[in-house]
Amino acid sequence: MPVEQIAVENMSMKIVMPKTGLTNTENMLDTWSVSEGDAVKKGQVLAEIESEKTTMPFESPADGIIHLIAKNGDTVAVAGVIAYLADNKAEYDAMCEKKDITATDDSPASADVQTKLDATEVVMPKTGLTNTENALDAWSVSEGDTVTKGQVLAEIESEKTTMPFESPSDGIIHLVAKEGDTVPVGNVIAYLAADKAGYEAVCKICNTESESESDAAPESTTAATSVISSIRHAKAVTKSGRVIASPLARKRAAEKGVDLSLLTGSGPGGRIVAKDVEAYQTPVSGIIQTTESREPEHIPLTPIRKAIARNMFNSLHSMAQTSDSVELDVTKLMDLRKKLVEKQDILGTKITINDLLSYAAVKMIKTHPLANASYTDTEIISYPFVNLSMAVATDYGLTSPVVRDADKMSLVDLSKALHEITAKARNKKLTADDQRDGTFTLTNMGIFPVDDFNPILPAPQSCIIGFGRCMEKPAVYQGEICIRTMMVLSVTYDHRVFDGGEVGSIMKTMKEYLENPELFLVQ
Hints:
By secondary structure, the protein is of the alpha+beta class. The protein contains 15 helices and 28 strands. Strands 18, 21, 24, 25, 26, 27 and 28 form a seven-stranded mixed beta sheet that branches. Strand 12 (about 150-155) and strand 13 form a beta hairpin. Helix 1 (about 5-10) packs parallel to helix 6, helix 5 (about 195-210) packs across helix 6 and helix 12 packs across helix 14.
């Protein structure tokens, strides 16, 4: 079997060095946990990977028979091939017979092709330890643009967040993946050519492959086009149900009231372009052809929505969760907030009711450390620091960015940190580091007409506090019925960590703090 044919058949089964951070460029393969020729399962730990920050397990992306490329102690560039997975024994034997691939194929395209093209591969990054694929939300550059190292090329949507993806180097870009494609980690999404000649060579090879794939026999395909072909075929799976259209086409459709799902695209890969929208208008009457559909709409799950569903389900089924609630008189708290807002020029930040609630909760933990703990099968871990996780609703899903060491912050410092992390969440600028290591969570539904709710506790934390809206209503105050501002506080906790008596004490402390805010301000 020719070497290039092996590369084609096994391109989708390559195992590449993961990216362990936004600026990470290489890692060391510390130790293989499997041996050459082992049959491995998806999710099985294959090796220990050592990055510049830590050592972590690396799991198999699929089932197969493993052929090792990198050796223990090797330092491998991110997205460089460290092993292959063969589907069966015959395929594995064929790979082992062709020793050339271990020497030359250290990236999705062979070194020979890379030299001829003078181009750098841009691959889908790994955004977490268990991350296997991401969606390319939108390109920030156009085909043929000259880009510089560090320039934002695209928005990448992982199972946790949407984040900018920066160029690894300077060059002229040739786009491979399309907006809306879901791309496996390590697979090519674009090429960066060093100069105009290199760019034209990349385009020529990709175009040749595209034009000939329908009628060319495998034997007539060149080595270069075989490699590019395998990359293009393995690189993406279009989201089910998502309409692929250019930004201009979407704009024209919105202006004209055209349902894009009714159109047939004439662009590359069936992509809908502006002229398709214009052509959908009836020539005689000028009335736009629209058809009312009464069929159910099938909304594809985004990586973030999948992660939220999985995490919430697992949390409810892996912990002894229960919830309690109490109504609070927060009239004085609202008065305090009004005074602080009037002094925002002096404070340097606009204090919100959420800032005050968060600050009070952090102070509560000083006397109730089990609210800032987690449960394992052998022990309860109580943390000496408070990493405050704040639930933030965005237009792309629920996120929980973390303010680290919130217990060391003043009210002003905490307010600034919360404003910054919330803005990052809503502007799709959160990194993986911004969402990990939370020890205690707060969620506030005050902007919605929600009075009382039971928040789901995120594992492995032991406590989450939720707040409903503030409402003016009749209440008994100092023996008289009068109008007061009331709010419901809800606590969901892990009954394995503490019992009802402790949660009662937590709620008593929070009630004292929020009804008499001077108490937590002097703590």
